[in-house]
Amino acid sequence: MHELSIATAIVEQAGEIARADGAGGVSSVTVRVGELAGVVPDALHFAFEVARDGTALAAARLVVEQVPGRAWCGECAEEFAVGMPPFFWCPRCDRPSRELRSGRELEITGVQS
Ligand SMILES: [Zn+2]
């Protein structure tokens, strides 16, 4: 379960951000997770509960903002949803496009003390 290593990294990074801000504890952490990032939100929530144990984030809540996978078609200047599993084919001009605009995010966007 690679969500556990991701959750551990989130706990470590959020802890560092809180320390740099001089915060004693963390009440919640917000992360952006792309549809194509290969992370299952439910598994991430579960892993976070394991990873936060005994840290400054022991009482913290994990907020997951999901980002849909979207690609760009240069032929007709159209952005389209690739879905899951991703299908990189422009629905407008019927051509393949692999120019991904969003969906691979995996980042901390907020740490609340
Ligand atoms: Zn197109």
From TrEMBL:
InterPro entries on file: Hydgase_Ni_incorp_HypA/HybF_CS (IPR020538), HypA/HybF (IPR000688)
Known role: Involved in the maturation of [NiFe] hydrogenases. Required for nickel insertion into the metal center of the hydrogenase.
Residue positions binding Zn(2+): 73, 76, 90, 93
Protein name: Hydrogenase maturation factor HypA
GO BP: protein maturation
Keyword annotations of the record: Metal-binding, Nickel, Zinc
Family: Belongs to the HypA/HybF family.
Pfam families tied to this protein: HypA
Organism the protein comes from: Streptomyces echinatus
MF term (GO), any: zinc ion binding
Family matches, as NCBIfam families: hypA
UniProt binding sites for Ni(2+): 2
